[in-house]
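Appendix C: a fully annotated inverse folding record. The material below is reproduced so that readers can follow the format used throughout the book. The structure is listed first as tokens, followed by the designed sequence.
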């Protein structure tokens, strides 16, 4: 027989431990087989309980723990375990579930090992193969399985670059046909010049768990190419029909109805694509805002080429400066604010295990994005300059400040989650408390990286180390939440990978 001990709540939520012969020791002591966090699991004693294999089955023994060992809602000192039993280590302590199954070929007893030997085995990628095989059989995502040969990856990259090049040509043709060569040239310079400064805000928000550069580039390209092309075509068709039917009023109708619906849909599709395709990178609500913001920034940057080019052609330098002040100073993040509503919805969908909310949240976020976009276009289209300034100060500026407050809160929340989730790895000895303080501090991270600028190898190792530790913390968080919801998560098989990567990098940083 083989016993599988599945940790459902607590600092080890989502972990599984196996026993065929010998014993499993449970507690907060560093030499325990199942070692809980002292900070996160205060009800667990240092040497809380033992699960022991005997000739007639598996037995749970309480080691005179302070808060007791609860078996199927009953306080016990010793009892025989059955398939499906529930164990709790102290009242309100971690909950563990027992699964007992027959095995065809019993393995030799697992000898008691030193802490160092067990850690080496636990963080050795080769030693994780059995664990990963079990995870794969349960239907989890298998990160070790390559979906295509390496050469096909290069083909995919080439196809992506080729598609982006074609869309770039289409956007260039749209600009040239709309504002001519001079207008397109001036508009491009003035629109793209401040873009890195706007992008820095999202990079700062994403400081604890930076998204891959290629993912951010792809997001910017989605907004600046795909979303612009589709929106331009649909809005042009809708505007032409509306103007033909309603005259000049049709132009305002297009801005208030067509533009918000179509533009937020094309941008929002990029956020949904990130949610579905980048599960390893897309962790929480903050990531939803980052991807949405970068996509919207790409859209706004290319859209500004048209606005700035037209302003220069019609009003010269004065006209260009006026439009740049309205769009680049008063409202540089308007599109990001709109689309971030969809990003928040997708972030909620990533965090929740409620199936209905996974669908409702992105849809609700999209509707909120359309509403805000329509409100902005209504203010810009139906009132004069003085009215616009007044409504901007009364309505839009407070909304933007609220949005800034929300994303600052989410950034701090992510830092707090990282610190809390890494407590178990500190208890195990994989990382130190100083590592936790380093990872969760933007200032400390930056200083640490800058100190290795003269050594490219060490710089890359430190960047990988910071990312691996952050991702490990977020994986622990996803597993804990999935276990609490009696659900599964793709983050579970990633934990040993990041642990092994951290162990490898510790000697290089």
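Designed amino acids, in order:
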């Amino acid at each position: 027989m083989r016993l599988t001990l599945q940790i459902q709540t607590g600092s080890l939520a989502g972990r599984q431990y196996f026993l065929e012969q010998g014993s499993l020791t449970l507690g907060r002591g560093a030499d325990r087989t199942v070692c809980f966090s002292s900070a996160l699991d205060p009800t667990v004693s240092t040497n809380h309980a033992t699960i022991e294999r005997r000739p007639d089955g598996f037995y749970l023994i309480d080691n005179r723990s302070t808060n007791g060992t609860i078996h199927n809602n009953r306080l016990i000192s010793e009892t025989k375990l059955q398939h499906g039993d529930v164990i709790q280590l102290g009242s309100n302590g971690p909950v563990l579930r027992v699964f007992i199954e027959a095995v065809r070929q019993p393995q030799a007893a697992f000898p008691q090992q030193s802490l160092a030997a067990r850690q080496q085995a636990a963080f050795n990628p080769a030693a994780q193969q059995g664990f990963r095989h079990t995870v794969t059989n349960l239907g989890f995502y298998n990160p070790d399985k390559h979906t295509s040969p390496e050469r096909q990856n290069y083909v995919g990259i080439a196809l992506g670059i080729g598609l982006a090049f074609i869309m770039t040509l289409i956007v260039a043709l749209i600009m040239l046909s709309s504002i001519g060569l001079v207008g397109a040239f001036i508009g491009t310079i003035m629109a793209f010049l401040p873009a890195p400064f706007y992008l820095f805000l999202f990079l700062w928000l994403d400081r604890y768990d930076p998204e891959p550069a290629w993912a951010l580039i792809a997001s910017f390209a989605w907004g600046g190419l795909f979303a612009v092309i589709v929106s331009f075509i649909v809005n042009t068709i809708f505007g032409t029909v509306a103007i033909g039917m309603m005259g000049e009023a049709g132009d305002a109708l297009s801005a208030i109805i067509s533009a918000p619906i179509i533009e937020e849909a094309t941008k929002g599709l990029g956020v949904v694509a990130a949610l579905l395709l980048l599960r390893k990178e897309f962790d929480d609500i903050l990531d939803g805002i980052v991807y949405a913001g970068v996509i919207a920034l790409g859209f706004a940057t290319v859209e500004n080429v048209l606005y700035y080019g037209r302003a220069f052609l019609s009003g010269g330098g004065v006209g260009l400066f006026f439009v740049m002040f309205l769009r680049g100073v008063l409202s540089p993040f308007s599109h990001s604010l709109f689309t971030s509503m969809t990003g928040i919805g997708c972030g909620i969908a990533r965090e929740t295990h409620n199936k209905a909310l996974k669908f409702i949240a992105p849809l609700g976020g999209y509707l909120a994005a359309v509403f805000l976009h329509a409100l902005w276009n209504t203010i810009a289209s139906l009132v004069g300059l003085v009215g616009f300034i007044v409504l901007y100060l009364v309505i839009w500026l407070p909304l933007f400040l609220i949005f800034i407050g929300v994303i600052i809160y989410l950034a701090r929340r992510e830092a707090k989650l990282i610190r809390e989730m890494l407590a178990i790895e500190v208890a195990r000895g994989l990382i130190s408390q100083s590592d936790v303080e380093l990872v969760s501090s933007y200032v400390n991270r930056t200083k640490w990286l800058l100190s290795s600028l003269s050594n490219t190898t060490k710089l890359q190792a430190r960047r990988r180390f910071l990312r691996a530790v952050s991702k490990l913390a977020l994986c622990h968080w996803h597993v804990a939440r999935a276990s609490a919801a009696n659900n599964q998560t793709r983050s579970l098989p990633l934990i040993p990978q990041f642990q092994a990567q951290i162990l490898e990098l510790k000697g290089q940083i």
